[in-house]
User: Fold this.
Amino acid sequence: MKILFYCQHVLGMGHFFRSLEIIKAFSSHEVILVSGGPPVDAELPPHVREIRLPGLAMDADFSRMHSLDPAKSIEEVKQERVELLGKMFSHEKPDLFIVELYPFGRKAFRFELDPILAGIRRGDLPPCKVVCSLRDILVEKKNPASYENRVTSILNACFDGLAVHADPSLVSLDDTFASMDKITVPVCYTGFVTPKPRPGAGEKLRKALGIGPEEKLIVVSAGGGKVGAPLLEPVEKAFLEKAPANWHMHVFTGPFLDDDHYERLAACSNDHLVVERFSDDFLTWLDAADLSISMAGYNTCMNTLAAHAPALVLPFEQNREQLMRARKLEALGALEILDEAGLSPDQLIPRMRRIIEKGRGKTPPVNLNGAAETAAWAESLALNGSGDGC
Assistant:
């Protein structure tokens, strides 16, 4: 079976890496990853090839789209993308088309998606099943009724199924989407999508770093990094001023943190503080950590659960998504929530010490098998025409 997986990440890396984890689970099929956001350095498995559309991205408050090629206008890039996507679809003839987020989000990209979806339904393009791949929580909208009417209209007319990457015992789509009763296509709650740590990988990393059992490793991260400075800078400051001598901190800023902020953070590096852009083995770092400090994006939260790492999170304030997720996980005892007032050294260091001393608690009963369950369900839908069994 051939699968075309469309993922457009516009600010961070979370959408890309969640999609990549799902794609890995389709290991017995040929997968074409269609992306078009800022380049991400990620190794693709042998059954996957990536086709990049001319790049587009959004600013930090999602108010403006811009071309990643300064020599090309938005309209030029859009036209190129429409033509490339249409030709690609006709040439590749996929059996399954998976669209990440749309129509629940990525409205700014309907210029290229709507023609493909309409072409499939009219028979102008090769026939295939179409599935929406959706995370757990939707951001709030100014006009919810109009938004939900548009979403359900497109979903019911152009899609064959909806995969919600959540465990409904923790987060249900109707928490943030009131029109579930209007959805007529099959809906599958797949569980959350995250890789799992390799057995013993965290312990092996600690040994490689020379961190003994009486020493503590704090891993600090900010996803893609574009909005990470308000977390990274005060955490580093607190560590430098008041951390005990047996603590070690490793900071992953994210590849999209601007150079000025990165250089300021990296300038403070010492034997106990290391600053890097990115790790392609982030889960092993969490498995090794005595404490994770991060924002509260989907991927980092689920990575933290998978690694069973004690965690402090500072939710991104632009919308409700991260705070809502963090509160649900805090209620399970999986993490604790920070706010900006709690980032001062006098408040942060004692809180870090308390959580580190408490250690790892019980693993919350949350389904983290979302990638495998997505692949199994979508495969059944594409090959058998049925979304049953989810």
About this structure: The chain has two domains: 2-193+369-384, 201-358. The CA atoms of residues 26 and 216 lie 38 Å apart. The first helix runs from residue 14 to 25.
